[in-house]
Amino acid sequence: MQYIEHRDKGEVEIQGVPDFDLVRIFECGQCFRWDAAPNGDYTGVAMGRAARLRKSGESVFISGTLAEFESVWREYFDLDRDYAAIRGSLGVDDFMRQACDFGAGIRILRQDKWEALCSFIISQCNNIPRIKQIVGKFCELYGEPFEFEGGIRHTFPSPERIAGLTLEDLAPIKCGYRAGYIIGAAKAVVDGTLDLEALSRISPENARSELKKLYGVGDKVADCAVLFGLHMLDAFPQDVWIKRAVAEIYGKGFDPGIFSPHAGIAQQYIFYYTRSMARDV
């Protein structure tokens, strides 16, 4: 793996990372603030920063300096983890070998803990385009604006900003009943009832239990927050796609433990594979 700064173009070239597919990373349901351009580039905001990524040959190019890449994006894209080796360990049967091969290139992003929790609260009973629309409006109204490549982007709203809002304040983002859940979660973070940093240091099971104490947070949202926000890779969120797949392939009594300690990565391969196959039918 090699990182080369091209100062004349304002980019860092990432070489030698085999599992780094932009479409699969950004379209596998784990994040909602990255958008594709017609030419295949992706631009988005994460960790209070904006970036543009493009693929050329075997390299991925990301806008910014090498210092910014090392301080933000290297960890965000989990670039020091060997996903090829993990895929090999998850191929426990024909179905999983197919799912792993199809999803090769997915990496679990190291997202901001609050943003992941809030985004997956919004995700309840929603499809991905609708989630992205709500999250985008939410950031536009209550995030901090900043300039990027000649346009204005917005950070994800802080819990401190959201804790002081009312249901009426959130009406413009059209998130329905989820508005109360968002405000409640923000207040819990601000008053210390919920310490997301502390949760990242306990077991996934205990973190899940603590998250479920929040009003409006059930199994699926808690598991998504554990996997995508706390980056506990053994969490196994189950939405309708996952439930259908494991019921058809593994039947009753399915135990995600067969994929331990990377059940969360297995879940992403299954989700991306089954959802993509259904679209192609």
Description:
The strands form two sheets. The chain has a six-stranded antiparallel beta sheet. It has a two-stranded antiparallel sheet with strand order 7-8. The termini are far apart. The protein is of the alpha+beta class.
Number of helices: 14
The succession of helices and strands, N to C, reads: EEHEEEEHHHHHEEHHHHHHHH
- Across the major sheet, the strand order is 1-2-6-5-4-3
Provide the low-confidence segments as ranges: none
Q: What global shape is seen?
A: globular
Radius of gyration: 19 Å
Largest sheet: 6 strands, antiparallel
Which class best fits the helix and strand makeup?
A: alpha+beta
End-to-end distance: 38 Å
Helix content: 40-55%
Strand content range: 5-15%
Labels describing this entry:
alpha+beta; 6-stranded antiparallel beta sheet; two-stranded antiparallel ribbon; 14% strand
Please write out the topology:
Elements: E1 2-6, E2 11-15, H1 22-26, E3 34-36, E4 42-46, E5 49-56, E6 59-63, H2 66-76, H3 83-90, H4 94-102, H5 113-122, H6 128-142, E7 145-148, E8 151-154, H7 159-163, H8 167-170, H9 178-190, H10 196-199, H11 204-211, H12 219-229, H13 240-250, H14 263-280
Antiparallel strand pairs: 1-2, 2-6, 3-4, 4-5, 5-6, 7-8
Helix pairs in contact: 4-14, 5-9, 5-12, 11-12
